[in-house]
Amino acid sequence: MNLQQDNCINSLSNNKVENHFGVEIQELPFINKINVRIDINDNQNIIKCGKLINAILPIQPNTYVKNDNVKAIWLGPNEWLITNNQNLYSNLKSEIGNIQASVTDVSENRTVIRISGEQIFKLLSKFLVLDLEKNLPDESSCAQTLFVKVPILLVRNNNEKQIPEIDIFTNRSHANYIYNLIVDGSQYLDF
Amino acid sequence: MFLINCPYCGEREQVEFSCGGEAHIERPKNPSDLTDDQWADYLFMRKNIKGVQFERWNHINGCRRWFNVARNTATDEILKVYNIGESAPSISGNNPTTPSGEPVIGSGNLSSSFEKK
Q1: What is the CATH code for B3-82?
Q2: What is the pLDDT of residues B46-60, one digit of tens each?
Q3: What is the complex's ipTM, to 2 decimals?
Q4: Which site in A14, A18, A96, B88 is 20 to 30 Å from B33, CA atoms measured?
Q5: What does pTM read for this prediction?
């Protein structure tokens, strides 16, 4: 039913992984995303939302929390992005999407490009104005910034392999542009 | 280019922000009582200070929140960042001197006769 749920980067067949200088680049499969806005003082709705997603909404700026299926990413002092594999939207909408809070399904808005490898910070620093060491210090940090001129959300993952891994959330319409720049940049990491 | 200390996200590059113009402009209580000139003043006339100016900024490519900034327009030095709704901090006393020594208001053409009504 949903035409947008395919991968959106033209040059990619499904789950193709580009690999240059140990940096792997791929577009992740479709995942549900929900934008939640709740007043920070509205304890009742914050607790209710936490119970539904089985995680505590992060209050600390530029951090995220995750459990097995859900990531709750801080977007602003009263705004979070919840990514999940299940269909949480209808539950959240009916439980907390009332006058005090807003729940919006933004699944088709963004796609996720995952890059991993020891040199991804060097690669990203070609395109970002963000100080990555300061703003993505550990495996629970995220940051919103500009990629050249495109607004993106960076989420640093933790994985068992201890290899740095970053998910780039970007508008679907800009995904090709960003993907091509990253792939191109990754081919010149040796100088 | 300069750094702005977003109250939520911390220090970020200015390109991530968008300036919303002069801060602390109150909407008149009874717009229908105003003359056209007074209404035009409210809508269009802004200070153009060479020195400390209070501005609204939005972290448009970050947390998308508004806040106020006291910025020296001559040097781009940011003297204070404070929340929307707070009154302007009293830092006009230590207005840094402008590089060429022009008057603070109307300094573009060295005319100090223009004062905002």
Answers
A1: 3.30.2270.10
A2: 988 877 889 999 999
A3: 0.86
A4: B88
A5: 0.85
Residue closest to B19 by CA, chosen among B86, B67, B85: B67
Average pLDDT over residues A45-71: 91
CA distance A82 to A102: 13
pLDDT at A150: 94
Crossing angle (nearest 10°) for helices A89-96 and A43-53: 160
Q: Where are the domains of chain B?
A: 3-82
A144 and B CB contact within 8 Å: yes
User: Phi, psi at residue B114, to the nearest 5°?
Assistant: -80, 120
Query: Which range has the top average pLDDT, A18-27, B57-66, B104-113?
Result: B57-66
A109 touches chain B (CB under 8 A): no
Q: Residue A142: which H helix or E strand, with range?
A: strand A142-147
Q: Which of B15, B61, B65 sits opposite A76 (nearest CB)?
A: B65
- Assigned CATH for A19-30+109-185: 3.30.1360.120
Chain-chain contact of B13 with A129 (C-beta, under 8 angstroms): yes
Assign domain A32-105 to its CATH architecture: 2-Layer Sandwich (3.30)
Q: How many CA atoms lie within 13 A of A163 on its CB side?
A: 11
A151 has a chain B CB within 8 A of its CB: yes
pLDDT tops 70 at residue B98: no
Question: A144 and B65 in contact by Cβ < 8 A?
Answer: no
Look up tokens 């808005």; give the residue: A109
Question: Distance from B110 to chain A by nearest Cα, in Å?
Answer: 37
